[in-house]
Amino acid sequence: MPKPLRCREMLQRLRAEDKRFSISVERGKGSHRMVVLTTDTGKRHYPFPCHNDRADIGKNYLRDIINYFGLPPDIFD
Predict the structure, then answer these.
(1) Is 19 helix (H, G, I), strand (E, B) or coil?
(2) What residues form DSSP beta bridges with 27?
(3) 63 SS3 class
(4) Does the pLDDT of residue 28 top 70, yes or no?
(5) What phi and psi, each to the nearest 5 degrees, are found at residue 3?
(6) Interatomic CA distance for residues 60 and 57, integer angstroms
(7) Whole-number Å distance between alpha carbons of 4 and 63
(8) What are the start-end ranges of the H helices in 1-77?
(9) Would you place residue 62 in the very low, low, confident or very high pLDDT band (cuts 50, 70, 90)?
């Protein structure tokens, strides 16, 4: 089970896995942001709460991001 990570560190690890990952501030509601993966067939989005770049992302959100994008289970360890 991954430990909570800061928003900036999460993006760094996602981009190390695949350079097509990005964070969208415009699409999320309120303090939510979106993890975006751009592929040849379109874009996949996953919302998560992030008040600022130093905010912690909970382990449940990290686990869901792993499952949603089909990432290796140890990416956030």
Answers:
(1) coil
(2) none
(3) helix
(4) no
(5) -85, 155
(6) 8
(7) 10
(8) 7-17, 59-69
(9) very high
Burial class from Cβ neighbours inside 10 Å (0-12, 13-18, 19+) for residue 50 reads buried
What integer pLDDT is reported at residue 19 of this predicted model?
A: 94
**b/e burial code for range 17-49 (CB count within 10 A of at least 16 → b):** eeeebebeeeebeeeebbbbbeeeeeebeeebb
Tokens found for residue 7: 């928003």
How is residue 12 written in tokens?
Answer: 């760094």
pLDDT in tens, 16-25: 999 999 988 7
Name the 3-class secondary structure at 45.
strand
